[in-house]
Amino acid sequence: MSRQATPSAEDCKRLINGFVDEIFGDLDTNPDFVAMMRSAVPEMPADPTPAQLEAWAKLSALIQDPDFKASVRRMAEHQAAERAAGDQTGLHHQVTDLVRERVQKAQADGIEPGSPAARPVLTHLIAGYTATFGHPDSAEYRRKLLTRLEVANDPRAGQYFRLLSTINGWPAPPSLAPVFGWFIQALRHHPTP
What string of DSSP letters covers 159-192? Predict the structure, then answer.
């Protein structure tokens, strides 16, 4: 990519805001999440590295990809449906941290999601969700949680934030797709408490 193709701050903001408007604009989704998405704007330095320029090209292609936009739209619609059903919680960093820590430990210990040893790990994870969202553990709740995780577990969402981190010179966030993939498999194998 040539130096002339380096996007301006306004280009970056316009592209991200257009993406956020298209995906979330007409839905009643979590306002904290939408604000976070709007504030996470690529800030290309005056003299970008080749890696930053490549990340910009990939990010701009990703957020214009119809399949990715449809996937993120499904996430937004699911979130809006949950809000319509009464979920007024904000961002869920604590429960995400809990899942990452517990699943990574289970994986390091060689615990397969379909094994009996996964059941207590899964029970602990679901307890984090029930505490956050105020629902008791049940087969019905596990089905809803499975749907929520399946809708949200698109690895391209993580790619979005890794590309943004490269552009902005931030530490790259770890991919959560393998962690939530394990969680999804455990829920499929253990659908009842």
Answer: HHHHHHHHHHTPPPPPP-HHHHHHHHHHHHH---
Distance of alpha carbon 174 from alpha carbon 155, whole angstroms: 11
Q: How far apart are CA 118 and CA 103, in angstroms?
A: 9
Distance CA 46, CA 49 (A): 10
Query: What is d(CA 98, CA 140) in angstroms, rounded to the nearest whole number?
Result: 22
The pTM for the full model equals 0.85
Q: Which two tokens stand for residue 86?
A: 């009464």
Cα gap 30→36, rounded to integer Å: 10
- Treating both helix axes as pointing N-terminal to C-terminal, what angle do 118-133 and 177-189 enclose, rounded to 10 degrees? 100
Q: pLDDT for 7-50, tens place per residue?
A: 888 888 899 999 999 999 899 988 888 888 888 899 988 899 99
Helices and strands in the chain: count of H runs, count of E runs: 9, 0
